[in-house]
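Shipment paperwork, digital attachment
Item: protein structure file
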Amino acid sequence: IDYDVHHGNGTQWIFYDDPRVLYISTHQYPFYPGTGAADDVGRGDGAGTTVNVPLAAGAGDADLDRVFREVVMPILSAYGPDAVVLSAGFDGHAADPLGGMQLSTGGYATLTRRLWAFAADRCAGRLAVSTEGGYDLQALEEWLDSTLEVCAAEPPASVAPAAGSTAIAAAALDSVLRAQSPYWPGVG
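Attachment content:
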């Protein structure tokens, strides 16, 4: 799972043909590096194991949470991984000077709680977090503290949904569900 503001093109291409790895990226699009369209779904045996969720600039906490609830978590659940690896880029934070997303530290904590709860329930607690981008040092420090607190705590039994998603989430969900429906028919 990659929630960096940038699409993880390198990680995607490493596993693009490999059905043993499910790669899901939520990212600002269009934005550097210019990859990660919803119809980039993998190829050959790996078709359907690449899930790109391109979001317009301005996407915030409720948008990402809705995408996680309606696409990321259901596909992750259907896939049934042995472990979850989080490529945790924090450059989608509203304070970050690089991107145009509007996530807060609390919004990122909600997404991480969802993944931690899933990993505890379905993967014997196997969640690895790799930090990536984040260029506002105050926000990055808050996020690191928050992520460590989430992962050090008992996994939550449930995570309340963030209210107030926008048309950004709806547009992203529409394109992703169209692209992924042949591979994940029960999602959406």
